[in-house]
UniProtKB/TrEMBL annotation:
<keyword id="KW-0675">Receptor</keyword>
<protein>
    <submittedName>
        <fullName>Olfactory receptor family 7</fullName>
    </submittedName>
</protein>
<comment type="function">
    <text>Possible taste receptor.</text>
</comment>
<keyword id="KW-1133">Transmembrane helix</keyword>
<dbReference type="Pfam" id="PF13853">
    <property type="entry name" value="7tm_4"/>
</dbReference>
<dbReference type="GO" id="GO:0004930">
    <property type="term" value="F:G protein-coupled receptor activity"/>
</dbReference>
<feature type="transmembrane region" description="Helical">
    <location>
        <begin position="129"/>
        <end position="151"/>
    </location>
</feature>
<keyword id="KW-0472">Membrane</keyword>
<dbReference type="GO" id="GO:0005886">
    <property type="term" value="C:plasma membrane"/>
</dbReference>
<keyword id="KW-0807">Transducer</keyword>
<dbReference type="InterPro" id="IPR000276">
    <property type="entry name" value="GPCR_Rhodpsn"/>
</dbReference>
<dbReference type="InterPro" id="IPR017452">
    <property type="entry name" value="GPCR_Rhodpsn_7TM"/>
</dbReference>
<keyword id="KW-0297">G-protein coupled receptor</keyword>
<dbReference type="GO" id="GO:0004984">
    <property type="term" value="F:olfactory receptor activity"/>
</dbReference>
<keyword id="KW-1003">Cell membrane</keyword>
<feature type="domain" description="G-protein coupled receptors family 1 profile">
    <location>
        <begin position="1"/>
        <end position="214"/>
    </location>
</feature>
<dbReference type="InterPro" id="IPR000725">
    <property type="entry name" value="Olfact_rcpt"/>
</dbReference>
Length: 214
């Protein structure tokens, strides 16, 4: 998922820098947006699954092998792929409804979905509905699951008498928490910020953070 997520934007950006060409065809833009949304959504759901995995490992260690059995892992993986495909097609179908655009310049280094939606001449109702519905289902709910998992993890760790034991248990969550903060903090800010007043420059920096840095 990470390789696909980065590969959907970075190679094109490097080619653009090396050739000094900022042009992309409509079809290539839609393809890039579809792949980007697909892998971004997959990353999003898998980060939530990883938080649940850490919660089970720390809070229910004796039942870990039973709860996180291979069948459940496969089910969670299939769920993430299915939800990602649906999200990708919703963005594609929404964009295909637009018959005219205000301008042909995208204020980003790739075909960022919020930027594409902002270019539409059509009314903002469909755009806002898609943005908020996708934001709630693939932003708010997964993030709530991650916060709840870490709330339970911290509660369980505070019951451990030795600080060394607490540090050892929580150290396995450090890298995951870092990625979650970068990915969700900049991603949700960029996505939902496009509906309100939004600075293209800040949006570019934010999108660089969640597409490349994470």
């Amino acid at each position: 998922a990470d390789i696909g997520f980065t590969s959907s934007t970075v190679p094109r950006m490097i080619v653009g820098i090396s050739t000094q060409s900022r042009v992309i065809s409509y079809g290539a833009c839609l393809t890039q947006m579809s792949l980007f949304v697909l892998f971004a959504c997959m990353d999003n759901i898998l980060l939530t699954v990883m938080a649940y995995d850490r919660f089970v490992a720390i809070c229910h260690p004796l039942h870990y092998a039973v709860i996180m059995n291979p069948r459940r892992c496969k089910l969670l993986l299939l769920l993430s792929v299915f939800a990602s495909l649906v999200d990708s097609q919703v963005h594609n179908l929404t964009t295909l409804q637009f018959t005219c655009f205000k301008e042909v310049q995208i204020a980003s280094f790739f075909c960022d979905p919020p930027q594409i939606l902002d270019l539409s001449c059509s009314g903002s109702l469909i755009k806002n509905i898609v943005t908020y519905v996708v934001g709630i289902f693939l932003g708010f709910f997964p993030l709530s699951g991650i916060i709840f998992s870490y709330y339970k993890i911290v509660s369980a760790l505070l019951k451990i008498p030795l600080s060394g034991g607490r540090y050892k248990a929580f150290s396995t969550c450090g890298s995951h928490l870092s990625v979650v903060c970068l990915f969700y903090g900049t991603g949700i800010g960029t996505y939902l910020g496009s509906v309100a007043s939004h600075s293209p420059r800040k949006g570019m920096v934010a999108s660089l953070m969640y597409t490349v840095v994470t």
